Amino acid sequence: MNLIDVLDDNGSPTGKTMSLTDANLKGKWHAGVHIALYTPDRRVVLQQRSKTIMFYPGLWDLGVGGAVEAGESIYNAAMREVEEELGVVPHNLTSVTRWKYNHRVATYKMHVKVLLYAFIAEADPAHFMLQRSEVQDVRLLPIGIVHDALFRHKGLPQIHLEPYESYYRQLLLAIEEHFKQLHSAGTIEDIT
Fold first, then answer.
1. 3-184: which CATH topology?
2. How many CB atoms lie within 10 A of CB 3?
3. Measured distance CA(19)–CA(6) in Å, rounded
4. Could you tell me the residue ranges of all domains in the chain?
5. Rounded to whole angstroms, how far apart are CA atoms 1 and 144?
6. Which tens digits make up the pLDDT trace of 108-164?
7. 124 exposed, middle or buried (CB, 10 Å; 0-12, 13-18, 19+)?
8. DSSP SS3 for 49
9. Cβ within 8 Å of residue 26, ≥6 positions away
10. What phi, psi does 60 have (nearest 5°)?
11. In the prediction, which pLDDT does 191 show?
12. pTM for the structure as a whole
């Protein structure tokens, strides 16, 4: 059983640790990471969550993520989560935002309180090895199609983002900005 560091409302460690399940049952703040991924050929990675996972089973998400373990740095947790779920080492890990996720899950009698650190990173899909207990499938899509799938609910079934649309827009904007910087530097030919 992995432990997490219990945090206060501002994200400072309290000096206490507990299991992730206990933290969620007791409504204790802890750190988490979420990494939106893009490929070297400028596609965005969408992952379908396993149908057996506790939260949002079978639904599509922009990226991978999980809890930061006790004593683990945010950066190391982000690297670990990509490696665990997709079997690859991410490159160009870039911080985007910190977001407070505060959600009651009545089904499980939990109150999930996560200070979520969001990143974007590059991953090579040629080497993906999906952790089937968490990731059922992946899709590699051009960024325009991802916009349609996430915000217009076109193209992929069961995408669940509400009420987090502004958060996902931040991640996609960060990926778009990265692509534009590559284009400006002459690293890629076209971003559309």
1. Nucleoside Triphosphate Pyrophosphohydrolase (3.90.79)
2. 17
3. 9
4. 3-184
5. 40
6. 899 999 999 999 999 999 999 999 999 999 999 999 888 888 888 777 666 665 557
7. middle
8. strand
9. 18, 111
10. -90, 150
11. 41
12. 0.90
Tokens 């000096």 appear where?
15
Query: How far apart (Å, rounded) are the C-alpha atoms in residues 83 and 64?
Result: 10
Token reading at 76: 């190391």
Three-state DSSP class for residue 43: strand
CB-count burial class (<10 Å; 0-12, 13-18, 19+) for 10 = exposed
* Cα–Cα distance measured from residue 116 to residue 30, given in angstroms and rounded to the nearest whole number: 9
| Residue 73 burial by Cβ neighbours in a 10 Å radius (0-12, 13-18, 19+) | exposed
- Matching residue, tokens 């990731």: 135
Residue carrying structure tokens 């206990």: 22
Q: Could you give the 3-state DSSP secondary structure of residue 118?
A: strand
Q: Which residues of the chain have pLDDT under 70?
A: 1, 156-163, 186-192
